[in-house]
Every structure is written in C-alpha cells, then in structure tokens.
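Trying the structure run again after the queue cleared.
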Amino acid sequence: MKIRILGIDFCTDGPGIPGRLGEGGLLVAPSGPGLACDLPTNDAYRRALCAADWVIPDSGLMVLVWSGLRLFTGGAPVKRYSGLRLLREVLPLPEVRKAGASFWIMPSLDEQERNLRWLRANGFPELSEDDCYLAPLYRTNPDGSVHDETLLAQIESRHPQVIFVNVGGGVQEQLGWYLRQKLSYKPAILCTGAAIAFLTGGQAEIPPWADRLYLGWLLRIFENPAKFGRRYWASIRLVWEMIRFRDRMPASDS
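Done. Tokens:
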C-alpha cells in the first residue's frame, strides 16, 4: 500500500520490504532536507523519487507534519520507517550475506575501509574490495542527472543481487535510478546513504530506541553542529511545503 505526500508515493509497509528484495527494484529514503531543498529545485531528483519502486518514509519531520495535517484534513496515516532500520533488518538476511550477493558503493576510501572492517566482523567475512566501488565526485549532466558507465560495467560483470548505495542524498537517488534503467537485470538497489556509517562509527551512533523516537537528527547535530545544524535548519521549509501542497508535488523552483 502507498500514500501520496508531496507528489511522491510512499510505501506504508516498510517492514515487509526486506522479504521482497528478491523482486528487485529501486529503494530510496528521502531525508527531510532532501524533501525540503532538493524536491522543489532538482528535476532529476524529483524524477528519481517518482520512478522508485519503494520510497520509504525516513523523514521524522515529514511524518510528524503529516500526522498534524491529518487532524484537520483527514487522510491515511503514515508510520516512519527509516533507512537505518531497513539496513538493520536487511543485513542479517542469509541471501544478502552470501559471497558475491552484495555490492557496495562507497563515498570515500576511509569509509570503505571502515565499513569493510565492520561488515567482515558482522556476518560478511568474505566481503572484499572487489565487492565495492569508490564513488567519484559526481558531476551532473545538463539535464541534472548522474551517470557512471564504469560503475555500470563493474556491476554487470558481477551481477550482485543487492546493491547498497552509500553516497550522499540528492545524488544517490539519481545514481540509483540510472542503474535501475541501464542494468540488464533487476537487482535490489538500496539508497540508504549514511545509514551504514551509524553502525560502523563513521557518524554518530544512533541506537534503535533513538531511531524509534525520531532523535537521529539530534544526535547528528550534537556530534557535528556546524555541518548538521545548518542542514536540518534548512529542512524547516518542509513544514510550509507540506501545509501548502499536501499530496501534490511542490512547484519547481528550477
């Protein structure tokens, strides 16, 4: 079942997704800052969210505002299902832990080394550098989209069943959609961004109770106020966008 918010069809059965990875498809988890800042301005980002097979309600702010709007206008409820929770539920699956079953797109060499150490110690002993791809600093094409033929060829040569896209929000969704369109087969492409870093120590640790209480953003601000304070402050725009547009796509600023 899906519910439309800001013109995007969000999946309301997040806990059922790990059991459906064998179907393949693109999963995105748009953040509050992404919905507030990228959705009205980036056409390629909008296209990727609209075309995704699964869009999970990762943004606690979006879920809270939607719950408030329902008091006055009605509509179906939506329950938050975070990218971090998804990762915690996907990583233990035997079919994901098999040698060659997963492929990891990493944002930097340091994070690749840290993530590999953690994954090898937590159920992926055979995972190697060959199962990873170090993402370049992506530059968008004239139409705003992201392409990477080197990555495409590497995935085609290995045919992993699950691809974890760990680069930044706003880019990873477009990269995931590019792979979804261009690959000759249909793997599960999970755009979970920084979620792996919460587990490996690359970013602030977010325990399950904090994730359930929508407090991940606060822990990230405590760890790096200069970076994440500005980012989450910008997401306040999302409140106005949701009041104004509700289930409709915000007017494009581009």
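The two ends are 31 Å apart (CA to CA). Worth checking whether this holds up in the mutant runs.
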